[in-house]
């Protein structure tokens, strides 16, 4: 039995894109997600890609959103 947990959580679509300053039609680089996850909340990181804001302040909610985005990228679509 497959439990469909992703349908039950209430995602705010596009919030991570807006927070990073990346347009909706562009993909968020995995290097940026890794850098956000590795940083501590309160740190200011520089964006390794050319998309979006150059300096980003890492908050706990941004870290959670980046972690979810990274995990959802790994899920294969069936």
Short characterization:
The protein has helices spanning 15-20, 30-38, 60-74, and strands at residues 44-46, 55-57.
Shape: globular
Q: Major β-sheet, in short?
A: 2 strands, antiparallel
Strands across the major sheet, in which order?
Answer: 1-2
Which spans have pLDDT < 50 for at least 5 consecutive residues?
none
Topology order in helix (H) and strand (E) letters: HHEEH
- Helix count equals 3
Kindly provide the radius of gyration, computed on alpha-carbon positions and rounded to a whole number of angstroms: 13 Å
The overall average pLDDT, rounded, is: 89
Question: In terms of structural class, how would the helical and strand content be classed?
Answer: mainly alpha
Q: In which range does the helix fraction lie? A: 25-40%
Terminal-residue CA separation? 15 Å
Strand content: 5-15%
Number of strands: 2
Q: How would you sum up this structure, described in words?
A:
By secondary structure, the protein is mainly alpha-helical. The protein has a domain at 27-74. 38% of the residues lie in helices and 8% in strands. Strands 1-2 form a two-stranded antiparallel sheet. α2 (30-38) packs across α3.
What descriptors fit this protein?
78 residues, mainly alpha, 8% strand
Record the SSE blueprint:
Blueprint: H1 15-20, H2 30-38, E1 44-46, E2 55-57, H3 60-74
Antiparallel strand pairs: 1-2
């Amino acid at each position: 039995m497959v439990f469909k947990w992703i349908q039950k959580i209430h995602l705010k679509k596009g919030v991570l894109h807006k927070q990073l300053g990346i347009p909706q039609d562009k993909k968020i680089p995995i290097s940026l997600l890794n850098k956000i996850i590795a940083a501590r909340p309160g740190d200011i990181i520089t964006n390794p890609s050319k998309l979006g804001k150059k300096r980003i302040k890492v908050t706990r909610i941004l870290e959670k959103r980046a972690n979810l985005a990274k995990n959802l990228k790994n899920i294969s679509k069936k």
